[in-house]
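Weekly modeling sync, notes
Attendees: S.R. (lead), two postdocs, one rotation student

Agenda item 3: backlog of single-chain predictions. S.R. asked that every request posted to the team notebook include the full sequence so nobody has to chase files. The rotation student volunteered to paste the first one in as an example of the format we agreed on. Action items at the bottom.

Example entry:
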Amino acid sequence: MSGAKRIMVQGTMSGAGKSLLCTALCRIFRQDGFRVAPFKSQNMALNSYVTRDGLELGRAQAAQAEAAGVEPDARMNPILLKPSSDVGSQVIVNGLARGNMTAAEYFACKKTLLPEIKAAYESLAAGNDVVVIEGAGSPAEINLRENDIVNMGLAELVNAPVLLAGDIDRGGVFAQLYGTVMLLSEAERARIKGLVVNKFRGDAELLRPGLRQLEDLTGIPVLGVVPYLRVEIDDEDSLAPRLGAADARKPLDIAAVRLPHISNFTDFAPLETHPLLGVRYVDRAAKLGAPDLVILPGTKSTMDDLVWLRESGLEAAVRKLAASGTPLLGVCGGYQMLGERIDDASGIEGSVPSLRGMGLLPCVTAFEPEKTLTRVRATVTGGPLDGAGLEGYEIHMGTTEARGAPFCRLETGAPEGCQRGNVLGTYLHGLFDSGEAVEKLADWLCERRGIPKSAAAAEPWRAYKERQYDLLAQGVREALDMDAVYRAMEEFA
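Predicted structure, as returned to the notebook:
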């Protein structure tokens, strides 16, 4: 295998911390002077990102690219699966949707995608010094070993050494690591050049006897015990949004509805860094309370989630708050829900041809087969956020015809979104990343509550993220035997 040196991080399970470890390695290699690219052959996530050339990839790989100091590229995640039901997903290949498949349909055809995976990897490797490869789930899923394209199958395809990470925060890390290693073939075990205990809280010295025994049992060295690092890095999927109360130390309470198919909830991460704004995620009407702002986030299944909102009682609770003057913001699918009607004559989301919306904005959405993927700049026009500069991206199926005042105007002059009084709707993901909308939102909510505006503004989001990447890299570098990692990459060069 020619091109860049490579290192692959696999995990004992989903959520073992592979994404964060890969993000840290991308930053470390960049700090060490290398050109770095992340790579994940197949990702299943509802958090996605649009590249400058209008292609889609997993949000985790976009964050890893940022950590590496390079522009996100669809080649970094050639296959993205966006779950649309318990048994099916939208399949995105090289940044473009190829339709919906059941799990069985995808499993039957995924081997045919190997040439595209290999081409994407080799193209990245040709232009970089190091490729940091992330696995998915666990390599010990023996029922999925045949035709594997994301764990040991991929490691063999690109001849990559492997670090195997276990999550001690969930307990049973020795069994996780030992059991995973023992379920692999001899050739697969030979690729593992180090074990990593991840998310440790406490005194690492207390682990030493167990680590030595684990090394004796597996014949593989433990290269590090990585502490539980409290850094804010974009999450891969919807497991992360917490439920419950917002930060009680902050005077303003923002309640984001945790929809069953919530997507791109990272849109609201910049709000959490503001000294006045506390953000919480709610999935029951009883937990909604009396917030200063309600957010309806994006979703992969707008109509299904609107039905859930209705049946759970949250729609009635949100409508009641909006009628009393509580500000309400809908983003992407949340914006579509706020309208008068959603039409789906082509069956994009299912068999229901039309569904009544919440009726809070004068607009109608019609789903269409073609997916909108675009990066945009815009300026909010009128309303409480008037004048805020925005830089975001659109990912949605369908178009919305709005009769009311636009939320913003794109740099082309075209209107986007809709607003009426205290209800705002937009398709723009990342609308808070520039920081201007965050400050205007905080000022507006302070004015409504009659509380003093804080003199301290939030740290600019991009600067904040750069600092988080550096903190993550520092924590992992201090805990991981990087000399051994470099030796492993040389061995497989």
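Discussion: group reviewed the output briefly. The chain is about 30% helix and 30% strand.
Action items: rotation student to repeat for the remaining queue; S.R. to check formatting next week.
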